[in-house]
Amino acid sequence: RDGLGRARGRRAQAQHGAASDRFTSVIGYERTTWTVAALGRQGRAWERLAIATLEAPFVMPADLERTLRRLPAAERDELRARIEDETRQSLEPWTRALECIAVTRYVIAVRAARVAALDDEGTRFAYERLGRYGEERMAECVDVVRAGDPEHGVTADPTLAAYAAGELARAPRGATVAVPIEEASLGATLAE
Length: 192
Known about the structure:
With 192 residues, the protein is an all-alpha fold.
């Protein structure tokens, strides 16, 4: 039963990865506004895939359906419900991995916008989407993408900086926010 969820997750990621790659070419133009917008759209695409995976109707495989037809109605309904529940549970790690890819894209978009002092529609979009996740989830997702999760299709990106609590906080108009700077993220010479 776990194989049903695993196959479905791998198929969805493969199909979606190709669509998400369209935005990667935009990033190559090295225009901050375009890069932030492309990263935000990539994040949204991965986020939608995670939602669609969870909300997709369950379809019993034909071979199992034939086997279930031989059982009494009560037993058949109970077994069908159990198989559907176990399949959906096996999809949970896949959807969390997809969500982590999305969250990390949003984090990278916001980081790029902050470096460029950019506050446009793309930046606001990425901030808005990140608002759905807490600090812990953002940190967890960045760590997952940094380390990778090959079992669930997440390629490791060791060049991605670790998430620092509060790094994406926004200041109210006219105010400033102190950004925590860690020696590890700057290197020993810059921290001095």
